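Input:
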Amino acid sequence: KAGVTQTPRYLIKTRGQQVTLSCSPISGHRSVSWYQQTPGQGLQFLFEYFSETQRNKGNFPGRFSGRQFSNSRSEMNVSTLELGDSALYLCASSLLAGAYEQYFGPGTRLTVT
Amino acid sequence: KNEVEQSPQNLTAQEGEFITINCSYSVGISALHWLQQHPGGGIVSLFMLSSGKKKHGRLIATINIQEKHSSLHITASHPRDSAVYICAVWEETSGSRLTFGEGTQLTVNP
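Output:
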């Protein structure tokens, strides 16, 4: 069974631009969660989607948004990029929503200049 | 104070040593993850547990729900075990979000 895939793996953007990251979960998994990892803040929860609905959202500004499609693939979008948005963005999939084992993708390394 | 605290933050060991990484949390949880992150970023789930003890190869994870404490043990450590080990908890009240510890950087020297 293929693992969680994320595209692109690396991205360089300029302040003020927007970016869309994509995550394809393990086949059969219906929940996708997104996380941000920075050297200063560590790993932080962004949001979770299940059956195309956002179930939970972390403490991030409205510039961070996401969605999930009927095939469980998910995208997250960051608008009006700031230097502080430079981070590793990880998605994880699980069979169902809530406290189920998470399977992480390789991450997208975003650099904002 | 972070809701999830790990100790130590950094750990250097010689190959073959027995290693323990500790995780304490201050909230009610439904389950706890131990994760491993290698340079380059990829994260692997080692264990998910809500009670007792689990073992996989040279790795053992234990949790004491009453004391709000979990430990990850590595027996007969090897240089390939060098990585960051992260404890993460599913908070009871939030339901569907993980709260992470800061991680423990483990270096095993040959």
